[in-house]
Design brief:
Number of domains: 1
Largest sheet: 8 strands, parallel, barrel
Low-confidence stretches: none
CATH superfamily: Aldolase class I
Structural class: alpha/beta
Strand order of the largest sheet: 1-4-5-8-9-10-11-12
Mean pLDDT: 98
Helix content: 25-40%
CATH architecture: Alpha-Beta Barrel
Oligomer: single chain
Bound molecules: ligand PBG
Strand content: 15-25%
CATH class: Alpha Beta
Number of helices: 11
Radius of gyration: 20 Å
Distance between the termini: 40 Å
């Protein structure tokens, strides 16, 4: 009790602060999202994500090597699919020579030890911009799960270490686990986007992949029938527990900053690693404010990333990963 106890003693200078610091960010915390496009020599900046790029396979190879040399050991691959290959059933997603399948091989050839995770969802392949097959104004669940299962098998056969279903269909984790096991792909892991909210923070990502829901009659304008209502908390726990029962190796909360309460609660409840995804809109907000000189980029970045880890994240998917590692030196 004061005056015997003075808490400020433990904050008096940087050395004592270092000694008692509870949460330390390291390169090992990060999963680096990468956007891949067809073509050669392409490195296109994404308009709403300053200093983040879509890469063709040759540049993906360079990027993977650079990340590995910086000490970053895991990537999460997304592809931008040409319009003429999109349809309602996501057929291109199953093409063994498709962009994702080639991207996996490219990274694995360049850096055999780099952990490769892949996005498993239909939206980049969907002519309607949905994570599932659209029929009569609805997103079909079970038919979509079959596609996601085939997609996961295809990614695993191409060499993915983990598949990361980001769609929020019911029952997809069980179906994917059984599908992988039936094919003898016992070592391929599943990182489930377990508590993924219907968020307005995904805007820049949908620009990056040109994957936003299209404005056509009888196509839902948003993803609220499958992604979670951001007002809900118990539902996140239920979703996460079900995914673990179905065989998820890693679970995820997404987006990050607005959902630190959910992250902490899930971390307290489960005993598998918990990931958080600091999404594109969170990245864009800080980049924009920093560009205007309104926020200190590096300081706010570190404060946010430390908050994820303090709230219980074992893994952080973040577009800031390289910036952080450079800052850490
Ligand atoms: C789609 C998917 C999205 C993101 C990852 N996978 C967008 C969405 O659900 O519409 C968002 C990532 C980000 O915003 O950084 N399956």
């Amino acid at each position: 009790m004061y005056p015997l106890i003075r808490n400020r003693r433990l904050r008096a200078n940087e050395s004592i602060r270092r000694l008692v610091r509870e949460t330390i960010i390291t390169p090992d915390d990060f999963l680096v999202p990468l956007f891949v496009v067809e073509g050669k020599g392409i490195k296109e900046e994404i308009a709403s994500m300053p200093n983040y790029y879509r890469l063709s396979l040759d540049n993906l190879e360079k990027e993977a090597k650079e990340l590995w040399n910086m000490g970053l050991c895991a990537v999460l691959l997304f592809v931008k699919v040409p319009d003429d290959l999109k349809d309602n059933e996501g057929k291109e997603a199953l093409n063994p020579f498709g962009l994702m399948q080639r991207a996996i091989k490219t990274v694995k050839n360049a850096c055999p030890q780099m952990l490769v995770m892949t996005d498993v969802a239909m939206d980049p392949y969907s002519s309607y911009g949905h994570d599932g097959i659209v029929q009569d104004g609805k997103i079909l669940n079970d038919e979509t799960v079959e596609v996601l299962t085939e997609m996961s098998i295809s990614h695993a056969q191409a060499g993915a270490d983990f598949v990361a279903p980001s769609d929020m269909m019911d029952g997809r984790i069980l179906s994917i686990r059984e599908g992988l096991d039936d094919e003898g792909l016992l070592d391929t892991g599943i990182m489930s986007y377990s508590a993924k909210y219907a968020s307005s923070f995904y805007g820049p990502f949908r620009d990056a992949l040109d994957s936003a829901p299209v404005d056509i009659k009888n196509v839902p304008k948003d993803k609220k029938t499958y992604q979670m209502d951001f007002a809900n908390r118990f539902e996140a726990l239920r979703e996460t527990e079900m995914d673990i029962d179905e065989g998820a190796d890693i679970v995820m909360v997404k987006p990050g900053l607005c959902y630190l309460d959910i992250l902490r609660e899930i971390k307290n409840e489960v005993d598998v690693p918990v990931a958080v995804y600091q999404v594109s809109g969170e990245y864009a907000m800080l980049k924009a404010a920093a560009e205007k000189g309104w926020l200190d980029h590096d300081a706010v970045m570190m404060e946010q990333l430390t908050a994820f880890k303090r709230a219980g994240a074992d893994i952080i998917a973040s577009y800031f990963a390289k910036d952080v590692v450079k800052l850490l030196g």
